[in-house]
Amino acid sequence: MREKKLTLWMLGLALALCAALAGLVLLQGIRLRALRDSAPAAISAPQEEVPSATAQENSAHLTQAFELTPAGTDETKGTATAEVSLRLWEDQMDAAVKLLIEAGEETVSVPLEKSADGAYTAPVTLGLPSRQSGENAPISLTVEMEADGVFSRERLGEYPNTLFMTTTLRADLKEGGMTYVRKSLPTPGVGLIRINPECRLSVLDGAESVAVREPTFRLYCNGKLEKTLPAVEDETGWNLYGPQAWDNALVCRNGDRILLTFSCTGEDGRFYEFQLETARIAHEQGEVTSRLMPPAVS
């Protein structure tokens, strides 16, 4: 009899606890509904439209090749005209390609037309340095591609003036150029970028190689000239130049951008500097890309 009473007592206690828990849940639901009903309505405001066109500066090497063919000068107007032609690494259907020319504070946008062979071309006319005032406005060239609402840009090169519009000289890099070397250096992310000993080039005027004076290789790191290396004429070829076998490397780190150029004095007495290759150092590797551009002239 006592065990029966104990069992009934425990059953009653359990029912009471269940009822209390149900009441607590009901009370909490009522409180949440009251808070929700008393809360202020969300403010509805128009969202600022995010532009569908985004610019990617210095994107992954848009340009495979860039050529400039002088088309003459106008002494009266003081201008030079040239035909520019470029090819993209990855062309896209219906892409709009432009050449942006920055001269001081002014930027000119030149639309390029796609030819049957896949090259983008256009005539370009720029003012020559003033003979009277001696002004040399720096020039910057950038290629811009718009495809499916996305804009990509790549900086091609910078020039001290517009004399590059008048020269027919070109660098012919036969065996290049730079190599990234990760040796047993103690600091993480540090390596060497070097000019390959077998690097050879000649300077062409049309299809003919020309003799130059004071041939020199130059290594730039992040836009700053870091090393100048005299070049030597190869014994096996006339007007064929290569680096000296010693001191042809530059210490570099992750994030660095390296530019290799070749400079010389031409037969006309002008100073020429040719871009040859660029290297982008990332993840302890050096991605080397050809960068054959019209030379800077001074």
Protein described:
The protein is mainly beta and 298 residues long. 12% of the residues lie in helices and 50% in strands. The strands form four sheets. It has an eight-stranded mixed β-sheet, with no helix packed on it. The N and C termini lie far apart (117 Å).
Structural class computed from helices and strand pairing = mainly beta
Contiguous uncertain segments of 5+ residues: 1-6, 24-58
**Tally of alpha and pi helices:** 1
DSSP summary, beta strand count: 21
What is the percentage of strand-forming residues?
Answer: over 45%
Give average pLDDT, whole number. Answer: 78
- Major sheet description: 8 strands, mixed
Share of residues in helices: 10-25%
Supply Rg: 34 Å
Shape: globular
Provide the succession of SSEs.
Answer: HEEEEEEEEEEEEEEEEEEEEE
Strand order of the largest sheet: 1-8-7-4-5-6-3-2
Q: Report, as a whole number of angstroms, the end-to-end distance.
A: 117 Å
Question: How would you describe this structure in keywords?
Answer:
globular; disordered N terminus; single chain; mainly beta; 298 residues; seven-stranded antiparallel β-sheet
Give the topology.
Elements: H1 2-38, E1 55-56, E2 63-74, E3 79-88, E4 96-103, E5 106-114, E6 120-127, E7 139-147, E8 150-159, E9 169-175, E10 178-181, E11 190-195, E12 200-205, E13 208-209, E14 213-221, E15 224-233, E16 241-243, E17 249-253, E18 257-265, E19 271-282, E20 285-290, E21 296-297
Parallel strand pairs: 1-8
Antiparallel strand pairs: 2-3, 3-6, 4-5, 4-7, 5-6, 7-8, 9-12, 10-11, 11-17, 12-13, 14-15, 14-18, 15-16, 18-19, 19-20, 19-21
